[in-house]
Amino acid sequence: xxxxxxxxxxxxxxxxxxxxxxxxxxxxxxxxxxxxxxxxxxxxxxxxxxxxxxxxxxxxxxxxxxxxxxxxxxxxxxxxxxxxxxxxxxxxxxxxxxxxxxxxxxxxxxxxxxxxxxxxxxxxxxxxxxxxxxxxxxxxxxxxxxxxxxxxxxxxxxxxxxxxxxxxxxxxxxxxxxxxxxxxxxxxxxxxxxxxxxxxxxxxxxxxxxxxxxxxxxxxxxxxxxxxxxxxxxxxxxxxxxxxxxxxxxxxxxxxxxxxxxxxxxxxxxxxxxxxxxxxxxxxxxxxxxxxxxxxxxxxxxxxxxxxxxxxxxxxxxxxxxxxxxxxxxxxxxxxxxxxxxxxxxxxxxxxxxxxxxxxxxxxxxxxxxxxxxxxxxxxxxxxxxxxxxxxxxxxxxxxxxxxxxxxxxxxxxxxxxxxxxxxxxxxxxxxxxxxxxxxxxxxxxxxxxxxxxxxxxxxxxxxxxxxxxxxxxxxxxxxxxxxxxxxxxxxxxxxxxxxxxxxxxxxxxxxxxxxxxxxxxxxxxxxxxxxxxxxxxxxxxxxxxxxxxxxxxxxxxxxxxxxxxxxxxxxxxxxxxxxxxxxxxxxxxxxxxxxxxxxxxxxxxxxxxxxxxxxxxxxxxxxxxxxxxxxxxxxxxxxxxxxxxxxxxxxxxxxxxxxxxxxxxxxxxxxxxxxxxxxxxxxxxxxxxxxxxxxxxxxxxx
Length: 703
Ligand code: IFM
Hints:
The chain is α+β, with helices and mostly antiparallel strands. The chain has 2 domains: 14-286, Distorted Sandwich (Beta-galactosidase, Chain A, domain 5), CATH 2.70.98.40; 346-700, Alpha/alpha barrel (Glycosyltransferase). Helices cover 32% and strands 20% of the residues. The chain is globular, with a radius of gyration of 25 Å. The relative contact order is 0.10. The protein binds 5-hydroxymethyl-3,4-dihydroxypiperidine. Residues 334, 342, 347-349, 473, 475, 599, 601, 645 line the site of 5-hydroxymethyl-3,4-dihydroxypiperidine (IFM).
């Protein structure tokens, strides 16, 4: 499946779509800033951290299972309008043409519709959506109508509209879990409509029925040169999760709407004009592209070059939208704020796939994400205690810090998230040297996660340190012993924590790291993904249905030698300094054909290691897979939101794969591997407060 160029023509600085569009378009043209997200034309708006909770009904319950589900809940949207011309609803008139354009330098989606009136005349309606990259809670939408027949009056109407999802979830764990029972009308209006609106401002306050989280939403309408300009503001109070003794969390205090309405009003009363907001947006993006752009020069140039650059920039633009304004709120969900796939939960995607981009292009924002994880420590300590472990255990998936994964074999058993968070802390420190952050938060995260490993693992009869009954990144093998990735990353975590622990702990951690079991099969000549993996039956070649998770019971998948996403291969990338090139090549050659890539986190990692071990054609293929995951809807679920880890992975594949960036050994090094057909690769990295610019050319790259 490749990009349909008749629908999405190539352009280096914009995504353009011809045609009526669908839910895929709503994702591809979504605008967001990390605090607010809008899906044009869908009536769905999201505010980071604003979520509903619900009881998880386990058919067979057990001690310590996650009990409270969390789902990001849409906030009222103010961007859906009814446009009337001479009394006619233009939405009901035939659509002659529609063009959508998301400009990466302007940060705005523009939709131009031509509608046909009953007498054959054409009227043009242009609507725009912008979420301010410079201001946390602010958005802008404008509507302009041209070609109006003489004498016909135009009326544009649109209110704050709470979104109500359709009943009935598919049997697809990648979609949102919706609360069962009690209906899907989860927002209670707290004020009387009209009460809060004066001075041209319309507002409302809403509370989620179970979570008791409150949001104020409002808008200010102005008319300029015949266009309606609507500035929208949202205000919520960031919640502080508090771990309760014996587990559980007290995340929410009932928030009184009055201060939120006042904050919303103040934002709107002082709101810049549409022109000023647009100028501010463009200025923010000038800075972004200066530090974050990645340019590829193909030997052939031409349309392929334009399409490639467009896709790269669309992915980078998603990363800009995910992290621009995070201060005070939550983390970065797997879909950002572009949709509610994966229920709006944050996973390890945040630390291992998205953070590297932020660490190297915008370290202050990377620090905010790590501070979010630090604020989750009390909850992680409570969860560790619930699992009878010392230290802290981060939830596999969460919005508010509490474990929200109902299926523990592919959820809580992924203890490796602790090592992923620790890896990101260490990477941030290596690249920025931010000692203040380490003293205030980073060191504590390293220590608490190291304590968890020290307690989870044990010394075996063989005199080695083992970690059993875990699930690694490869979710097609669950509850295994000595997962290679987990053990290697736990070792890294134990050593990274050493400067921050007590003397007695440090001695223990160092000896556990030195004695860590890492499986190697001398007969096959590769590292063993876990203690049984290499002895499992191969996946039947005739069964090519993908993704496996939608076609087979988990037990069928678990008993085969089949890999959902890079596991050993991911360790080879992150901890590359610990393994020889020959070992990396042998491991890559063994595991790559077993890997289905059913997770979108896989392709970029496979590209990175393929590039390093000299499998350049394979590197290019995996890179293309990651690059077009959403633009070509390769997994058929982009309608649920952008695959943000894959977007981060695209940056990683470019910079760490073809640019050869490595830092796992505590030093930033680059060893480029340009693939066939590439003339040059350019990018910038911020290291130790200095912006370094790189341009690798094919001849110099040693191909
Ligand atoms: O975190 C990932 C996981 O590794 C694979 N399934 C999807 C999750 C969210 O992206």
